Amino acid sequence: GDSVTQMEGPVTLSKGESLTINCTYSATGYPTLFWYVQYPGEGPQLLLKALRDKEKGSHKGFEATYDGKSKTFHLVKSLVQASDSAVYYCAGLGC
């Protein structure tokens, strides 16, 4: 069936490192895709979303590009802060 697959779980980061979290999906058509972040002691909050193929979302230095051909929505940040250590969730509406 339709699904979203994310390889990484909690992320602990040091200042100056880069971050990539891989997200792939299996769905017919083009689902709406989301990245959520959950900081320690807090609830999940929306970080990025994309509704269509080739749409690039960016927020607070994070970027994710919706690629309908490879069915990916990878989260990337080139220079992270220690405060970016959190749990990151990929989700899809229509998956």
TrEMBL record:
InterPro entries: Ig-like_dom, Ig-like_dom_sf, Ig-like_fold, Ig_V-set, TCR_variable_region. PROSITE patterns: IG_LIKE. Residues 2-90 form the Ig-like domain. Gene3D superfamilies: Immunoglobulins. Pfam families: V-set. Keywords: Adaptive immunity, Immunity, Immunoglobulin domain, Receptor, Signal, T cell receptor. SUPFAM superfamilies: Immunoglobulin. PANTHER family: T CELL RECEPTOR ALPHA VARIABLE 6-4-RELATED, T-CELL RECEPTOR ALPHA CHAIN V REGION. This is Ig-like domain-containing protein. It comes from Felis catus (Cat). The lineage of its organism: Eukaryota, Metazoa, Chordata, Craniata, Vertebrata.
